[in-house]
Amino acid sequence: MSELFDAVDALLASRATLPPPAERKRLRAAHGLTIDEVAGALKVRRATVSGWESGKTEPRPPERDAYARLLDKLAELYPATPAPAAEDGPTPDALVPAMFTGVPAPAEPQPTEPISSAGVVSEPVKPQVPAADLVDAPAAAPRPESTTRPSASRRPGARKAAAANTPAGGADPRFENGPLAVVDVEDGKVLAYCVGGLVLDVPAKSLPSLVDWTLREAKLGQPKLSGPGRPADPLLVLTEAALERYGLPTTLTAQEKGAGRIPEDHKVIKQLNRADWKLTKRGFGPWARIYRPAKGSDRQCVQLCIPSWNALDPRFWDHAAELPPAELTRVLGTYATRVMTPRGSTAVTSLELMTALHPPTHAVRDEETGALRQADTKTPGSLGSEPVDCAPPEAPNGHPVLNDLNLPRFHVRGPSEMLFEESYDWARPMTDAECTLRYLVGLDVNMAFGAGANGLNVGLGEPTHVKNPVFDPKLPGSWLVDLSHVDLNRVKAGKEWVALDGNLLPSPFTPKGDRPTGPAWYATPTVAYAQELGYDVAPTEAYVRYDNGRYLDGWYTRLRDAYLATMADLGVTTDLSPEDFLTAMDGYKNRDPELGIVITAIKATAKGGIGKLRERPRGEGWRTGERWRALDRPTWRPDIRAAVISRTRINLHRKIVKHAAFTGQYPIAIMSDCVVYAANGPSPLDFVPYRDGKPLPGGFKLGINPGLVKHEGTQTVLWGEEVREKFDAPELNLARSIKDGTVSTADNGE
After folding, report:
1. 3-state class (DSSP) for residue 365
2. Of 199, 202, 242, 433, which has the fewest CB atoms closer than 10 Å, so is most exposed?
3. How far is CA 708 from CA 189, 447, 564, 688, 705, in A?
4. How many CB atoms lie within 10 A of CB 48?
5. What is the dihedral of CA 420, 424, 427, 431, to 10 degrees?
6. How far apart (Å, rounded) are the C-alpha atoms in residues 687 and 699?
């Protein structure tokens, strides 16, 4: 009889009721669970859980019953929000752009393809699982145009915001007016422009009362991005008229620009002090934070952005600072909704995004009292709340960790003493055959550093020093190894050995493309690539990190989705043919200049965040051997920066090798993520191979996804020869100037 019962139980388990795929994903993300954590608990592959959430596959016994149990428990904790009645307007999902919600994450990311401190938890969360994943799209919808609220009005000149511009917290009554507001003065009235075209009347007569009004009445802010995290503070953007109204200068003096703040004795700062408001250590500058110490879960903090003080640097925000209030609201609101509410420069915001997705600590429930408190240990998968020192070879010059090495004064460390993982800056003279061709065509990798970060295993904790280690390509670290024996004339491309002209290729191991001459320090992706090319490696020393994880996956996913959604709004989608893609990319920013600004900011966020992982001293009266401010951040991690740059450079080299093996064509210049080839035609399609509409596997592929390539620019071969002759530089890097032909030594940030 027991066998019959077992058979019945198995039959029931085989049909265990499961919610729809989208709900499965929502429930997992609501609790801050990663796909990897669910896969580990159910003892299945990550790709299997991803398939369940996308609806491509369905779980089978015995995993189905356990998966159903997990989802049932999560559904009790996070019930779905009831759908609005028909007369209330369309449902939130119907108003979110398809590209924003429909971009599937790769089941298993491939290396060559597209792939602050802890806050107080403001509401109860389940303690046992940390946040490591990200809700890919906002569960929010714009308010109907007929909505009215106290002290709110519709301004005739305000633009209507698209669904993608509405706040991620539209369903949260605490943040029903969006993540931010641009404060302006018109006809003597103070107005707050919010996303969606909403304009609020502001009664505040002083800056302290403006801060108080923002926290009590404005209903601005953004929901947390992960389970253990906290909501984003409201952001107020002050126009010049608003600055004058509240007694602040419209521009900074040269001295104030150098200090990055107005003086501590300014009358407005005194007003804030009298009202018991405080400023952070960076003072009252372009990105000021005004707060009162948190009491329990009651966090009182408002962020200010002052464009006329250069808060919106034109290198990363184009002409955003010059926009009228409604248009500026649209730009910043779109960025805030799709990335996060800005917390400073795009680089600062990038680090804040990493932290928001992996909060250093999380709430746990006291077993005796039932009250919530912050955990004493760091959240698994995060960098924790305390900084860790880097390994000596990972340290930039002047770092205090080098003090114990007793290096001679003015000693210049070489590759065997210091980790040099940087982006490519390589060029070579053109061959006679290349000089007979007509054009130089540049290809640029979309969000190259983001694609390099996706799926990358990085260290989360302190390094461990190991002598004569056995190299492990899955173990993050820095390795001292001699790679001078790797011969690019004969390498493995995939599983087959191929013969190449190594003199026409840059070395994958150095940023200048020079072949190594002896032992040097390399990050894990670089050493792993030497093995991939078919050569043995034998490190003599290493600093490895046994505590590791895919820390940047959620960060990449958030930026990828923001980038693709905004490009889709500009008419560039992921389903275009190569020909249509090139056509769609031609002048795409001109179709909607405001969204073009958002694209620039998103790309700057991806690139700037990686660079800021190894921020150097900025004034501060710093002297060699002393600590500088950035070292006190858990996100000061030069090893993570090195790993991302290493993998990004290797990804590009792998495509170059595949292309050379198949076509016999070699690059003549590479600058970071831009590579230049000589061709008979002006288009990438004149030399990028496609067969029956399909690209060369592992080679260059035209498309908008991160890791794919777009057309950077075309110049003539004659132009290239004339420029090199003019500057008497046969190896002048033409990739730096291929976009518009203007010769410059500055990186254009692309």
Report:
1. strand
2. 433
3. 49, 9, 12, 12, 6
4. 18
5. 110
6. 12
**114-146: b (≥16 Cβ within 10 Å) or e:** bbbebbbbbeebbbebbbbbbbbbbbbbbbeee
Residue 404 pLDDT: 86
Quick one: which of 184, 717, 230 has its CA closest to 433? Answer: 717
591, 592, 593, 595: CA torsion to nearest 10: -130
Q: Which alpha helices (DSSP H) does 165-266 contain, by range?
A: 207-216, 240-245, 254-259
User: What is the 3-class SS of 382-426, one letter each residue?
Assistant: CCCCCCCCCCHHHCCCCCHHHHHHCCCCCCCCCCCCCCCCCCCEE
Q: Note whether 398 and 625 are within 8 A (CB).
A: yes
Mean pLDDT computed over every residue of the chain: 85
DSSP per-residue letters across 255-323 = HHHHHTS--TT-HHHHHHHHTT-EE-TT-SSTEEEEEEEEETTEEEEEEEE-GGGTSS-HHHHTTGGGS
Query: Side chain identity at 106, as an amino acid letter?
Result: P
> 245 is written with which tokens?
């109204």
pTM of the model: 0.78
584 CB burial (10 A radius; 0-12, 13-18, 19+): middle
State phi, psi for 545 to the nearest 5 degrees.
Answer: -125, 105
Q: Retrieve residue 588's tokens.
A: 């795409």
Question: What torsion, rounded to 10 degrees, do the Cα atoms 393, 398, 400, 404 define?
Answer: 70
In angstroms, the Cα distances linking 141 to 29, 172, 176, 289, 334 are 19, 11, 10, 29, 13
| Residue, of 621 and 364, whose pLDDT is higher | 621
Phi, psi for residue 186 in degrees, rounded to 5: -135, 130
The pLDDT score that the predictor gives to residue 369 is 64
Instruction: Please give the structure tokens belonging to residue 709.
Output: 């390539």
Instruction: Compute φ and ψ for 402, nearest 5 degrees.
Output: -85, -10
- The Cα–Cα gap between 70 and 129 comes to 13
Positive or negative, the CA dihedral 127, 132, 133, 138 is: positive
Phi, psi of 694 (to 5 degrees): -110, 140
- E strand or H helix at 330: helix 325-338
pLDDT in tens, 384-433: 999 999 999 999 999 999 998 888 878 899 999 999 999 999 999 999 99
Alpha-carbon span 303 to 731, nearest angstrom? 48
Q: Give the model's pLDDT for residue 263.
A: 96
pLDDT band for position 747 (cuts 50, 70, 90): very low
